[in-house]
Every structure is written in C-alpha cells, then in structure tokens.
Amino acid sequence: MTKGIHWLLGLLGVGALCGAYGYGWERHQLEVVSLPVSLPDWPQALKGVRMVHFSDTHLGPYWGIEELRRVVDLINREKPDLICFTGDLVDKSTRLLSAAVPVLRALQAPLGKFAVLGNHDWRYEQQAVIHQALLDAEFQVLNNRHVRTEHKGAGLYVAGVDDVLHGTPDLAGALAGIPAGEPVILLVHEPDFADEAARFPVHLQLSGHSHGGQVRLPLIGHLATPELGQKYVSGLMQAGERGMPVYTNRGLGTTILPVRFLCRPEVTVLTLV
Prior knowledge:
This protein is an alpha/beta fold.
C-alpha cells in the first residue's frame, strides 16, 4: 500500500511540474523558425524574398499588449520584405484592440502587411470591429480578394479568404483576375483548406488555427486539434497531387487552457527560393 501511495504521489508531482512548466514557462518561450521554401516556377526576381508569418495572438487575459509589443519588435528586427498574419487576433473579447492597433501599426515591411480573420475573430460577431482594427494598423485584410505587390519589377499576388468555419470563403473569387502563371501566396486561417486550395493555381498556403496541438507528448505528438486543423497540424507540408506547399504556424497565444507543452509559440521567417 505504501509503495502504491508513493507511486501515486510521484505521478501527481510529475503532473504538477509539467503543468507548471507548460503554464509558467513554455508558453512564454517564443521560437523563431527560419527556413527556405522551394517553390516550383518561382520568378528569379522574387527569389530570396523574406516573409514573416505569425498567427493566433488570441489577445486576452493570457496574452496581452506587452507580449504583442515584444513580438512586433522581434519581427521588425528580422527586416522582412512582407508580413502575413493568419487570423485569431483576439480570443473572446475585443477590449485590447484599441491598445493593439498602434503596436501592430509599427510593423514594417516594404512589400506590405497582409491579414485574414480567424474563427475566434468571427465567433462572437465582432468580425467587423476586428477587420477595422487591422485596417487601422495598416494591414491589407484579404476577405476573398487579392492584392498585387511588386519586387524588382516582378509581381507577387497575396490572396486570402474569409474564415472557413464561420465566414463565406470564396477562393475562386479571391483569385479572379490574377493572370495565369503569376506567383500566388494564399492566406487562410484553417490549414486543412489546403486540400481545396491545391486544386487552384496557388504556390504556397499559409495558415494557423491548430496551435500545433498546443500540448504535445513524446512519441505521441499532439493530443487534439480543432476542426479543419487536424491534417496539416504544424510546419511545412504538401497538399494535393501537385504537392502544393502549406505552412502551418503554431501561433503565439493559447485558447481553452493557457498552457503549451513541447509546442512553443512561433514566429516564422520564410525565404522563398
């Protein structure tokens, strides 16, 4: 009996330590993931373009303005050519938006700043307020549309769709008018939309939503992911018969529980080659 109690106490102690680690330490340990992405038929003039991708800030009680300010400073130090945000700016409330706007406005990228909304941005029927906040922060909000930017004389199209779970995504509409063969980067909050996007002339999809699982265990991996974040959970993968690259960012904030375990928050620096 005594031995069994010792084992139980030991397991409870390990659980408490893991919980303290995930709540008090790891969710604050931001990782900068830098990697090249090889894109077929990518124009020579656009090779070497550096793009910062961040996602899922979930502004609220567990991730606030000071955390956002540190991320903005970090991104600016990377000197990206363009910046992409893939949704879930807020968690459950818009109360921090007015303070967040000037911080986000400080982000600098010569080819532009682009964003789409996520399911949390839509869930509480505050999508119009969040859309306007991103506009005030000088982001191009891509709700079923695209924007052309230019680098060294070559055009680069950044497209985005409404949130797949709560909005009205229209990828065909978002891509309408882009000349055939032109380079296209697609922003969509839910990564599993990649199976649909791979049927269209998209070179690269950027997504968030899954948080990488938020809690991962050795040998097992992620324990749970949300709807439409279950196939392309984290990192660089390929979708469809032609192998369209899709990158899923682990996000910055948390939802449901303010815990991360073996799944650090992430800012991604992608070099297009």
